[in-house]
Known about the structure:
Residues 130-137 have low confidence and may be disordered. The protein is α/β, with parallel strands linked by helices. Strands 3-2-1-4-7-6-5 form a seven-stranded mixed beta sheet, with helices on both faces. The protein starts with 8 loop residues before the first helix and ends in a 17-residue tail after the last helix. The protein has helices spanning 9-22, 64-74, 89-96, 114-122, 162-171, 184-194, 200-207, 218-230, and strands at 27-33, 51-57, 78-80, 102-107, 127-128, 140-144, 147-151. The protein has eight helices and seven strands. The chain is elongated and about 65 Å long.
Amino acid sequence: xxxxxxxxxxxxxxxxxxxxxxxxxxxxxxxxxxxxxxxxxxxxxxxxxxxxxxxxxxxxxxxxxxxxxxxxxxxxxxxxxxxxxxxxxxxxxxxxxxxxxxxxxxxxxxxxxxxxxxxxxxxxxxxxxxxxxxxxxxxxxxxxxxxxxxxxxxxxxxxxxxxxxxxxxxxxxxxxxxxxxxxxxxxxxxxxxxxxxxxxxxxxxxxxxxxxxxxxxxxxxxxxxxxxxxxxxxxxxxxxxxxxxxx
Length: 247
């Protein structure tokens, strides 16, 4: 498997676009994966004086008890949501309407569900904002009944720990082939992390994943395991807890 650079240039450009747009906002929505809020927290700090709420997205895939601990940890700064099911969005819309004119920036690492969150926020009648005084150029602002919203490209830190890279790989925020020479290692690590009573060999045999010559295709089995975890087919798991269990 040939690896590419895992920190593409468009992410660096996206940071500059974010810095320009955030000056015109009064609310920053930071989209996190509820299964790993720390690992999916963007390495970017909102400017002083800006309101910032954390959206624990994909809460329907996370362990409920763990999510409650994260909400306790983040206090009123967080809301658990599911862009897939719509869970938690009534609370979010209620909060948005407390702002006289919400100018929202949505921030998140790649593939954390940011686009799905935005689609929920804008609904079917989304429309781009035209020439509006005081609104930055570059990127796209959208208009909604509660205000306007700016979509930003996914952002990542160029310096990630090995553990964070592994967690982001499990969640699909980093593509396997730009980090790993093989899908097998991250898949085996996930089996250990979740204490799953299954092996890649079991999956390959059950699915009939064979290479030429009859050898088990563990790469294909590993890819299936990772996808099933991301889709919630293995069950509801949370990969990390807040310090001291979040109270």
